[in-house]
Amino acid sequence: MKMIDAMMRRGVSENVFPGAVLLFSNQEEILFHKAYGRANIFSAEPMTPKTVFDLASLTKPLATTLAIMVLVQEKRLALEDPLGRIFPFLKDTPKADIQIRHLLCHTSGLPDYRPYYLELARLPAAQRKEALRRRLVKEPLISEVGARVLYSDIGFMFLEWVVETLTQTRLDRFVEETVYSRLETDGLFFINLENPLPNIACAATELCPWRGLLLNGVVHDENAYILGGVAGQAGLFGSASSIHRLLLELMRGYQGKHSLLRFETALVRRFLSPCADSERTPGFDTPSARDSSCGDFFRKDKTVGHLGFTGTSFWMDLEQSVIVILLTNRIHPFRSNQRIKKFRPMLHNEVMKQLAAL
Length: 358
What we know:
By secondary structure, the protein is an alpha+beta fold. The chain has helices spanning 2-13, 59-73, 83-86, 100-105, 117-120, 125-138, 153-167, 171-178, 222-226, 240-254, 265-271, 340-357, and strands at residues 19-26, 29-40, 45-46, 53-54, 188-190, 207-208, 213-214, 236-238, 303-308, 312-317, 322-328.
């Protein structure tokens, strides 16, 4: 593992990221779990294996999608359910025909992103979520439903709304009660900005020009921030070991083994298999045909993963039983740092070479 250790050290010295935690496992055994560099370059706080990261878009598969899985298993929702059935006010609009699977697979026709926070910031905090949802109703589609794959934060804002409508429970509370509490770990959580958790050792992210401060233990995603820290597209925080615990149980469920999550095997396999009209699976990403961030050695048709804007990622090869989690603070102190794009595939290739040699 010396080559991997050297690569991670070079990642720090060459300013790919100020700090990182790398964890990978094979056949359910953790083979590597080490921290590198600084969690905060201004305070010189070191990164540790237990450091908590703003997981950014890993929220989509590891929180919102899992909440949808719970509702599907409980038969309170189906992937083919259209939004017009859940939200009657959408009937007679183009959004009425958007199905849950379209939102999960990013084929809804919705735009990728809108800076809603700029207009929401003018409102009192208590009015923002309702104002956002009025805005979501008015947001025009940019393509026909099912016609195009476009990665969409807005689709996951709708999914959060679906979860909260059907459960009458806020997303963070629902996923904690139904998923995370079964894992015997307290390392996955949203940080509610109205009642933040004290004494959490977090990796710092950006010196944010809009907020005028260094973000540390505060969600980076502006749309999630303006809503108080809990959103369908971002807001989840966690450590590498807690993510591994969750992914391991998902993998066990996929493989038909006993899993603490108690999802039916057929359900897990449906969510971890490609959609009919997208290379993505419901809620998860898959390796791209060329220049994938997971490198060259993950099985293309049996691998799921996701990237987070803050510098986080995971990849899970369901056939080889390999999990690789790379958490970095690459946007600390500025989001303009893009060096991780070249680093990720090289690291994953080296990890897979080392595992093949064992």
